[in-house]
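Supplementary Note 3. Input sequence used for the single-chain structure prediction.
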Amino acid sequence: MPLSRMDSSLKERTCSAFLKNRIFEKDFLANKAQVTVAPYKVVTSSQDLANIDLSKNYVLKTATGGYDGHGQKVIRSEEDLEAAYTLADSADCVLEEFVNFDLEISVIVSGNGTDVTVFPSSGKISTATTSCLKPLSQLAFLIV
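The predicted structure, written as discrete structure tokens, is reproduced below.
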């Protein structure tokens, strides 16, 4: 059923479930919206981590419930696999390849079915020695 024909409570539950699940989010962005995302695979058990290419770095994220590093395990070498196996056997996860980036931007959008509000964006610049979170208008000066 098209989203426009759903009653508002069903829309809210559908959108909420979508936004709270990294598997749904990645699938939608990569396959429906045609947005480039970090290479990823769905992980439903530690067996899905067998034979990953350890010449690459990864982050294993729980499909739901994790935020700001919680529910995540970084995999850089074989030594990191035991903790990753434990996480993978405890919840559905998404395994993402690390991507080098200069700027991370967060955008919060809220709507009620009629009105939509986009809150001021913030960005995060991270380097090996520093990390700062600032409004985008201030970050423009730091990027140049």
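Residues 1-7, 138-144 have pLDDT under 50 and may be disordered. The radius of gyration is 18 Å.
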